[in-house]
Design goal:
This is Acetolactate synthase small subunit. The protein contains four helices and eight strands. It has 188 residues and is an alpha+beta fold.
């Protein structure tokens, strides 16, 4: 039988059907990585992801220890449990990495995101945008006769919900920081 023939009754598998059979088993995980604050560290971390085809859904980084020159990178990524374990192990092997934590499995954590929304409109739409901003506890950080810029901090779901409500009211631009997270309770 040639390599191109198909047995009777066998189903054909398309070359375009390259979906991962474990795709339904993927999970979203929030990882925090404590690193030395030096040139090239973020590029090495991102290179680990891109070189292996892992996606980063959210990425934030900032110095958290001025005296120790350390930064915290918060990464939200998706993968099967085996892929997540592989990511954590590979991150831990990068030389300037001091700690890797998977907040998704280590217990309760606090996750927040900051977003800015520019809403352009007049009349009733403007009044409705202000009313919704008050309900969502968004702050007006800039105002003109034609637009408002709102600032909001909260979960990604809260920010998504606010954006959906602002769309029909004239949402023009959105800027988001990405997720920052810490484990609840005392650190061990």
């Amino acid at each position: 039988m040639s390599a191109l023939s198909i047995k009777p009754g066998a189903s054909r598998k398309s070359a375009y059907d390259l979906r991962d059979p474990n795709a339904d088993l993927t999970e979203t995980h929030t990882l925090t990585v404590l690193v030395d604050n030096e040139a090239g560290v973020l590029a090495r971390v991102i290179g680990l992801f891109s070189g292996r085809g892992y996606n980063i859904e959210s990425l934030t980084v900032a110095e958290v220890d001025h005296e120790g020159h350390r930064s915290r990178i918060t990464i939200v990524t998706r993968g099967t449990p085996a892929v997540i374990e592989q990511i954590k192990a590979q991150l831990g092997r990068i030389v300037p990495v001091h700690e890797v934590h998977d907040l998704t499995v280590e217990g309760p954590s606090v996750e927040r995101e900051l977003a800015l929304f520019k809403v352009v409109g007049a009349g009733d739409k403007r009044i409705e945008a202000l009313r919704l901003a008050e309900i969502f506890r968004a702050n007006v950080v800039d105002s003109t006769l034609e637009s408002f810029t709102f600032e909001m901090t909260g979960t990604s779901e809260k920010i998504d919900a606010f954006a959906e409500l602002m769309r029909p009211l004239g949402l023009d631009k959105t800027a988001r920081t990405g997720i920052v997270a810490l484990k609840r309770g005392p650190s061990l």
